[in-house]
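Training component of the fellowship. As part of building independent skills, the fellow (R.M.) carried out the full modelling exercise for a liganded target. The chosen ligand was coproporphyrinogen III. The inputs are recorded below so that the supervisory panel can assess the work.
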Amino acid sequence: MNKPLLDVLDHERRTPPPVWLMRQAGRYLPEYRAVREKAGDFLKLCFTPEFATEVTLQPVRRFGFDAAILFSDILVVPYALGQPVWYSVGEGPRLEPIADRQGLQRLKGEIDQGVLAPVYETIRQVKSNLPPQVALLGFCGAPWTVASYMVAGRGTPDQEPARMLAYGDPAGFAALIDRLVDASASYLIEQLRAGVDAVQIFDTWAGVLPAEEFRRWCMEPTQRIIAKVRVRVPGAKVIGFPRGVGAALVRYVEEVPIDAVSLDWTTDLGFARDQIQWRMPVQGNLDPLALVAGGAALDRAIDEILDTLADGPFVFNLGHGILPQTPIAHVEQMLARVRG
Ligand code: CP3
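Fellow's submitted model of the complex:
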């Protein structure tokens, strides 16, 4: 049986377009909150295959999405490199910051695949429970975005600590990025071997860098990850998501060998159609706040996206992760409209 999402990654147009939502497993779902509470700790949720499988399947069961995305987090990679990572309720992720080369030396040389083994077991369990037409996506964070949390020890508004380290000690910062390129490639290779159909690389903080830094810390490391992955898994399908880069998206899709690109919600739709979509399939890009707002504003936003992008290879999605306060009825309204 065909998977509509994989057809689109092969540059086919599907009507209606396949649809899934970034962060579709999460706190807006009461059934997620119940499992989250049972697990207690967020990393325990990620590393217990029975829990992680259940929350991966929940949004597919409830909404019939065309893809499931593996339940995990981008910060399991620093965790598997030996950096202490924890999640405090209401505060987001916290890490013991890496301030300099001494901090880098405390990391493991290679990612500890033993720590990540439960993630691969989750993939196998999800795979055997997923309807045949639903694609399973794996993912990792891009090195720049992951490094920005590793250096600051937490989320920051404009990634100032990581940008300062990159300017102050470019060779040291490059060593951290290199470590993440190797670790991320190994992680994605094992996800693909365990059965994911495609992977998405989240570069949530790509948009804070000047052009030359964007090339050096976002584009080049992502190119190297994809090259390494495809040596071991020929033809591996990759979706890129460099958030907030504006017109630099053209350079990204020309030079990074991805199969499709995810558009953030600020991306101009005409620009996406005329400059990006003739090169590759696009995914996106509903404003997550329009989904919170609902009503006529939501309908209008969906129609504009469909009118502009659905004549080509296209996956309907949000322009960033779904927000915890999103009403479930608005997700249903959205699906009914997208599927006609
Ligand atoms: O999409 C999915 O449903 C799969 C799971 C997934 C999570 N995080 C689960 C999660 C995915 C794909 C991610 C990616 C991720 N994690 C990114 C890149 C995408 C993006 O949204 O920008 C980033 C930057 C992170 C790091 C991270 N993890 C942050 C900043 C936070 C706190 C913010 C928040 O939403 O609470 C997390 C925690 C996290 N990761 C939660 C979930 C469901 C919420 C934690 C909880 O349930 O208590």
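The panel noted the following from the submitted structure. The first helix runs from residue 4 to 9. Strands lie at 67-69, 85-88, 92-95, 135-141, 198-203, 238-242, 260-262, 282-286, 314-318.
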